[in-house]
Every structure is written in C-alpha cells, then in structure tokens.
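We close this part of the discussion by returning to an individual protein. Part of our work consisted of pairing the sequence of a single chain with a tokenised description of its backbone. What the numbers capture is local backbone geometry rather than side-chain detail. The amino acid sequence and the backbone structure tokens for this protein are reproduced below.
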Amino acid sequence: MPSVVVDAIKGHQTRQFEERLKAGRYWHQTGLVFASTIGMPMEAREVTRILHANLTKAKLPSVRMHDLRHTAATLLLAQGVDVRTIMEVLGHSQISLTLNTYAHVMPALQADAAAKMDAALAL
C-alpha cells in the first residue's frame, strides 16, 4: 500500500477512535476500517454522498466509486507497473480479464516501449 494511503488510514483510525468514544455504549465493534458513526457497515448511499462531497471540495468531476478503480488501474499501467501486479491489486482471477479491460491503455504503452527501444538502439 502506498505510504500516502497508510498515512490517511492512520488519520482515519484516530477520527474513528474519537467517534467510538462519542458513541459510547452505542458503538458496535465490527472491526471495519470504514464504518458508520456507531461502528456498523455504512450504507452505499452514504459512501456515495461522502465521495461526491469530497470530489466537490477538491473541485474534481463527479464520478462513480467504480470509476476510481479504473482510474487506479490506468494510472498503474501508465506508470509501467506490470500487468500481473495490477491483476493482483484489482483481485482479478485471470490476467486476460485485466488485459481485456484495460486494452485501451495499451497503444500508448506500446508507443512508449517503441520510443525506449529507439533510444536504446541509437546508442
């Protein structure tokens, strides 16, 4: 997990502990990382509301939660992370699923690979 994510989760853990104290006897210890203000699973609508509020605050376009998954995979591919690792991060059972889903990114990666080969051969 990237360190920026680890740091964010640690901050969230502190806020969640404060919510736990505030909820007192109403807190349900479920072990969830992201829980309601009383420790229960969050409603999907609430998660979506929080996402959109944060996107608005950051002045970013409104997207679906699943779009974030695609963005992460596309960014990893663009950074040169191997497809096998991306497959495992996404939890795909077969590499072909990852390759077929993100095939639209491949032409840019192929052009980059060709440019790198040109540079290597020009030595």
